[in-house]
Amino acid sequence: xxxxxxxxxxxGILEKWNSLxxxxxxxxxxxxxxxxxxxxxxxxxxxxxxxxxxxxxxxVREILFTKTLDEEIENLPTKPENKPMIIASDIASINYxxxxxxxxxxxxxxxxxxxxxxxxxxxxxxxxxxxxxWYK
Length: 136
What we know:
This protein is an alpha/beta fold and 136 residues long. Helices cover 32% and strands 14% of the residues. It has helices spanning 3-8, 17-24, 28-38, 60-74, 132-135; strands spanning 50-53, 85-90, 105-110, 125-127. α3 crosses α4. The chain is globular.
């Protein structure tokens, strides 16, 4: 385990970072979704989306994004055959609750961003908001 991961785990000085992120910007998921859509980063067919956050911490931003994606799909006239997948990865062992989503698969993964156990081309979007790249 790295020194960085200990900072965010239970008892670390940044343990509450995750809850502060949601309090600071509860609309983050909607804004991120709108930005990725506007910039044509999201696929037109949302069921094909494989989104990886390499430094999810406690998953607040990823859950907010997934909630928005789930609502977008719920409002489609025809439901896709497959569900998009959101992978929230972090090097730290942070226990957090993930709500159930009807239209999206949400996966938690404990892994170092520089050694992910995923095959090449397994994801469409790699997202890192001041995480792994920040600390490298």
